[in-house]
Hints:
Pfam families: LacI, Peripla_BP_3. The protein is α/β, with parallel strands linked by helices and 367 residues long.
Amino acid sequence: MHSTLTIQDIARLAGVSKATVSRVLNHNPSVNALLRERVQHVIQEYDFVPSVTAIGLAGGRTRLIGVLAPPLTWPSVPEIMHGIAEYLECTDYEMVLYSIGFERNHSDVLDHILNMKMVAGLLAIFPGELSNHLAQRFQQGFPLVTIDDQSKPSALPWVGINTMTGAYEATRHLLELGHRRIAHILGPQHYYCAVERYQGYCQALQDAGIALNPNLLFQGTFTPASGRQCATMLFSRERQDWPTAIFVANDQMAYGVLEVAEQQGISVPEEIAVVGFDDNMLSAHLRPSLTTIQQPFSEMGRQAIEALIMSIDQNHSMEQGRLKQSTQSGSEHVREDPQTTNPLRIQVPTRLIVRASSGSPRTLPIG
């Protein structure tokens, strides 16, 4: 019988209501001490292990949070998930992970998940084509937060970075090292972050009084293979037409550049400096190690799940130390005011991580 016990069984054996059992399981302080002791005695006697879903349903409120994510093989996703899990450990919420590919629009899958009403809210990581569908659900009152750099921020609550500022800083770093011919390998232009990284690159050149050279632009796809292809094209040119540095729109493509450079005996950074964007876990362990813009993926996960839970439960709060850490991280909570909404925007600051691949100054820093 023990393995088939339900909350209803515990309520019957303890002589209380299902709502009382649910409140005891949820550590609700409003339960009478005598009743709490009676319920706990039955739970211990029958070695009852409650279902998280059942607790929520019995109490009229679920403590499950849905997380919709790309495959965990995506470079940034494990770090984001680490931040989410770390935060949830300090709460009485549990996570349900839905990991799906975004090769097609999975709106039917999303509808199935939400129609089951198992989760109190949803954190969507890089939702891609599902963004419009999520926006409809949000407008209907369902709690949602997105971590997204593929689409321009919309009415959905959003956590991300100032991509243009990060790209500007990466390019500025190369300029301050004395480089004037700086190539750029772009990401796919249907990704909003790739457009912003290109804009940051252009702005840094403009501020330094350097005209944009279309011959130093190469189109990539955010994959190591496309980095290899772009580097092969670049290094096939006459030596005098080479740039002295490359700002690559993500670390994955930068890995391809470094691979081709090594194969062709091109010294990095002595012959060409390389800077990436993301600071994936592998970037510090390459030879040479990769200078890059660090996206704080774990912190993005933590702040996104905090924002989601606070939108579900207005009384939710974390320890003062956690809140202090969040404030000291320099995150900006930006609220824009479109005509009918007041969406949350949380920008977590990026950081330039200088490593061996960008090398030492060639000339005095520019003013």
